[in-house]
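Provenance and format

Records in this collection were gathered into a single text stream. Each protein contributes a sequence line and a token line. The two records reproduced below are adjacent in the stream.
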Amino acid sequence: MSRRSERTGKLIQREISTLLEREVNDPRLSKLVSVTEVALSPDFMHAKVYVSTLGSEVNKEDLLAGFNKASGFLRKELAAHLRLRQMPELSFHYDDSIERGAKLLKLMSELSTQKNEKTGSGNRLRTDKGGKDGTNKRSHNRGR
């Protein structure tokens, strides 16, 4: 992806987020919805908009249907706010990376608590004072 494509994608992402927050009245899109990424085609004619939501109560198909219904409005508003030669066609895709990350963090915390339960308080670490001079080297004088 070129630098111009990345910058334009970030700009479109920011504008769509602002429009979702302030302008869109669709109840399917009023939940905690975030635009995670915008990927533009090399000719800037098509944009894949990846969206995600927090909470499992939202149906993904309803969310994407709401975005597809609002795509004309979003495209018109983007054209009014952004100075691009041609506004790309928007296609919306669900991004489940936030959910996968949350599941991974939950599994890691469960493993951590299981490990702490197994080690328990009976197995405390011993601290070694080391040799006479305060270093960690022990002298092994075996009758020499």
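Adjacent record:
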Amino acid sequence: MKRTNPWFLLGLTPLGFGVGFGLDWALVSRGGTAIPVPWTLSVSLVLIGIAVVALGTRVRRAVHPERSRRIDPIAAVTIVQLAKASATGGALMVGAMVGLLAFVTSRPVVIETVIPSNIGGVVAALILVALAFVAESMCVLPPQDPDGELA
């Protein structure tokens, strides 16, 4: 399985930006208010990142020979896929949060109460991406000799 390409994630952020900016624009143009990012979303993104790293440490303990704990291979692959999905979702959330923030700050009348929560959402989504990369790197098998012994 290949590692998640950071350039792919960087390419996803404009898509998220377009969705966030467009959604905010559509709501405001119909007479609604701009979307404030709830603080609970920011906290949830960070907690998801911490949970993914905790699961990654479980796999890391299993792949290192000095701590020979066993883990089901299906569970290990599921944890790696969770880390990859968290990185992808976090990249989309970064773009969407930046889009929401860009729309709010580009208006003639800026709503000051929305800006801190949107910045918190951007930071939390970036933390999720970083923690997902850490968890994915924890799930890498160490290189092995052709004889089957660890290098």
